[in-house]
Amino acid sequence: MNKAIYRILDANLDRAREGLRIIEEWCRLGLNHKALAEECKQIRQELAQWHSWELRQARDTPGDVGTELSHPQEEARESIEQLLQANLCRSQEALRVLEEYSKLYDPEMASACKQIRYRVYTIESTLFNSYRHQLLHSAPLYLVTSPEPEILKIVEAALKGGLNLVQYRDKDGKDSDRLEMADKLCQLCHHYNALFIVNDRVDIALAVDADGVHLGQNDAPVAFAREILGMQKIVGRSTTNKQELNKAISEKADYVGVGPFFETPTKPGKAALTQEYVDYVKAKCSVPWFAIGGIDLDNLNGILTTGAQRVSVVRAIMQAEQPTQVTRQFLSQLVRR
Ligand SMILES: Cc1ncc(COP(=O)(O)OP(=O)(O)O)c(N)n1
Ligand SMILES: Cc1nc(C(=O)O)sc1CCOP(=O)(O)O
Ligand SMILES: [Mg+2]
Q: Coil, helix or strand for 8?
């Protein structure tokens, strides 16, 4: 057998396991996801069984011309998501190499590596689903943007204050500008490990690889968004009454907006909801719900006494003189509850 084949198998068995070990740590300690952590560990053990003595013996690290080759992107990672993605990719690529080269060594190993590669794809989709959903469930404050000239600075200031959920809303812009801004905001949010959602536009959410889309009653159906964006992405729905809430839950929206709590110039012409509806939401809503409409630091306490635990705001942050401070104040009142 050509020694180079042994070296390739040896190196890629290590590479696949190392990538998985990094994923396993996050599943265990970052997500507290026992089943995913166990699956990573199980796969690592199965791969170790293929790592025979003859393969290990073929190792020749000083003679490996590739040990010093690295891409600048490997030196720095922008976010946990990017780090996880890079290591999943590393494992998947290594498994593909193992699958191909072990056809020349042991066809049983080739078929085992193929099965394992599919299992790593399943880990990937479960992981990102859990990661996004965990962030969504842990977010008490949701910033919906307005098209201010300094939008990027304001959003970044709020992210610095601890915000981790942002919706890009611009009802009047040109599509080319919207796309450019959505892309910038998406990157900014991901840099701060925050979720980025696009208002109304499933196509823009898809184009910039946003974490999801927010749809109102006159926007596309939830199922349509899922078909376009895939099951891993977040789909939110606005609701103002019981019927809309029941429908949003039966459509399996991931979260709902509940509003307007107060009439607001940001969305003129929409009458405030009733306390009866808020009581219904409290009793029946099985997904995270965000109170929205006219909410600011002055009335936040009153909102929280109606039973809301999460709020969504536009002006309170987008027009604040100190968005970082205001965000911190919102968060400190919200998490105290
Ligand atoms: C969190 C949240 N809740 C409600 C809305 C309103 O959505 P919609 O009714 O589609 O109105 P527009 O925002 O599109 O004008 C929202 N955007 N976010
Ligand atoms: C975008 C939006 N949707 C609402 C709803 O009730 O569905 S209220 C609203 C605007 C909220 O803006 P502000 O925080 O400036 O009052
Ligand atoms: Mg809408």
A: helix
